């Protein structure tokens, strides 16, 4: 969205990461709720992986075993940040 004068307020773009087996896949509302994510959020930060509440949601059975796209996103983000995200139950 550009304001008067051409200053960009928000810029939307997609990740350069492509997961072939999940192309065009949209998470269900149940997954959004179970994993504690927000469709309307702008951006994503690896800082969220430091929050135990976020990790508890991601590691919950309802999220980890039923919402692979969200788990893949956070795992890839952790790898990109050279962090270790141990999501195993």
Automatic annotation (TrEMBL):
It comes from the Eukaryota. It holds the Pfam family PAR1. InterPro entries: PAR1 (IPR009489). This is PAR1 protein. It comes from Malus domestica.
């Amino acid at each position: 969205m550009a304001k008067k004068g051409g200053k960009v307020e928000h810029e939307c773009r997609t990740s350069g990461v492509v997961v072939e087996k999940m192309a065009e896949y949209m998470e269900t509302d149940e997954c959004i709720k179970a994993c504690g994510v927000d469709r309307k959020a702008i951006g994503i930060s690896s800082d969220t992986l430091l929050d135990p509440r976020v990790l508890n949601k991601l590691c919950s059975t309802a999220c980890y075993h039923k919402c692979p796209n969200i788990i893949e996103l956070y795992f890839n983000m952790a790898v990109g940040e050279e962090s270790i995200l141990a999501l195993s139950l």
